[in-house]
Amino acid sequence: MTDWERKIKNKNFTVGVLGLGYVGLPLARAFASAGLKVLGFDIDQRKVKTLNAGRSIIKHIPHSQVSQMVKAGLFRATSNMALLKTADAVLICVPTPLTENREPDVQFIVASSETISKYLRAGQLIVLESTTYPGTTRELTIPILEKSGLKAGRDFHVAFSPEREDPGNKYFTTKTIPKVVGGLTNKCRDMACKLYNTAIAKIVPVSGLEAAEATKILENVYRCINIAMVNELKMVFDRMGIDIWEVINAASTKPFGFNAFYPGPGLGGHCIPIDPFYLTWKARQYDMPTRFIELAGEVNTNMPHYVVTKTMEALNKRRKSLNGSKVLVLGLAYKKDIDDMRESPSVKLIELLRQKGAKVDYNDPHIPKAPKQRQHDLRMTSKKLSAKLLAGYDVVLISTDHSDYDYDWIVDKAKLVVDTRNAAAAVRKGRGKIIKA
Known about the structure:
single chain; alpha/beta; Rossmann fold; 2 domains; 8-stranded mixed sheet; 14 helices; 12% strand
């Protein structure tokens, strides 16, 4: 047994998690639950203070779990980056957004790597978890870390293991989702596998860093393209008078050769709207066009515009103009039953509706106030639903199909409902009010 294995087995091991958001906090919970000490790093002082007080910052992680981790002495959050040197392994879980020109914005990876390099010590394992293009760890992260004077693969160890978080998923958690791991060397990979094996049910080792990076990109490109396909078919079938959701449900009865994907008002979340374009950018360096990805991005990006057009047409049939109409958007999160609004199509819908002169409000039981984002600041708070409130809007637009919503009641009280999620499919009374978009 190596010293590395012995420290892990004896629970005399500290895992550093850099970035305590939707990826980092669930990962910290997984390791703390396995009995390892976790030191969480974040530059957001409010987040650090909240977590150390035993309160969660993410809806699907209960306060009780964070409190238990803190009280057991297995988790502590800090903004003191000098403490990175006390960790045996540091896992980088920072955002990887796009620039305005739809190119990779790796500033957070760069900043994290530069910070770690200042405190890097021999024997540490550094793992990048942020979704990115193949080659990032080798070409970007490692050279920055080696500014410390230490040599990767010899003095310290490097691996890439893509996050696979699905916020709000009731069936899969960080612990039960298989973990793909690739290393700079076989030893780097094996060390990372032994670490993750303490907290994750199944480990999937691959040949190297680039294979692990490409795995996550493939997963997200697959979903992006298939969602674009059903979004395009939704528009085509709508013109033909065919219900796309009925067709998908019928096709799903085939026991082989078909996986169901569902249309919506646009793509949301941090992965699918963004990550495929990391690959298109990298592919250009190899003179390789990525036409499927570009086309899928074009279709998905157009969906909020399609929804607004359908809303305008629905109002027009009732002798109403969108300009001056009152619109209530139901759901600000990018998918049902979570409080995550990263890249949410609801934000784009609100901005488009405002641009066309509509007076827009929103309701979301999980997001009482719209937080300021990097590229958006709605400056809105959630309206409390009531029969009087619903009746006061010219149209209610269902953008996120939260389980909390009583769709029978909503349709009954609203004048007009535009449904982008087939959320009101089971409603029978007042179906003439429902327009699918």
